[in-house]
DNA sequence: TATCAGGACGCAA
DNA sequence: TTGCGTCCTGATA
């Protein structure tokens, strides 16, 4: 697989690849959407995560794999963007924006945008969350330090950055570059740095209901029982109600349960 | 040496 | 326009 991967990704580190044997299959051949959705929402997708057109899946069709879980491609190529978004993640992804921006476009325009990008909309924070949800990589490469608070650590920063580079078809990706992208999230209220702890970041303001879901023993994440949080920062960042002309977003960052209050 | 913060610029979607 | 990717300087562990 590594050789095949190297053909399409010059510079790929085989030693790294050998340590992450199921990354590609995990990112392409599985359907964690349904798995995660079942785990997180055994009673069905919450209404606020369903779209406004009647509760149908919020996931764009081209992001959902078929029942056989196969991804397009010959199998010799790395999937470019085969991530299947757990519930809530895609909700945030498609509803999120910079909060200084005007209101988001209507849902049908978002749908057009999604289609226009042919399923290639993906963000670093989603990628990290995906890794955190996958026992193949968590806690091996990335792990929760305090899952209920959204605090995680890049155990192997190089491997994670390479994975990100593979995903984005950027063979030159390294932690320095990925870290810059992570730091952009500070301004946007998506991440914050955990002071005094290297490679430790925190998703901002993880809501209580998500904490409950994480704590309920689902397979949606992992943690390292041997490592207690050293000194997590104050996590009491207040929830924010960010009014827009069409929606209210009740959290600065709420990847698993962004609440969109449709005032239309 | 590695990590981290953040400015500046560029680019693909 | 967005979300980075890249390069950079400087600080810190």
UniProtKB/TrEMBL annotation:
Major localisation: nucleus
Pfam families per the UniProt record, alphabetical: Ets
GO CC entries: nucleus
Domain of life: Eukaryota
Domain ETS as annotated: residue spans: 122-204
InterPro entries assigned: Ets_dom, ETS_fam, WH-like_DNA-bd_sf, WH_DNA-bd_sf
This protein's name: ETS domain-containing protein
Species for this entry: Diploscapter pachys
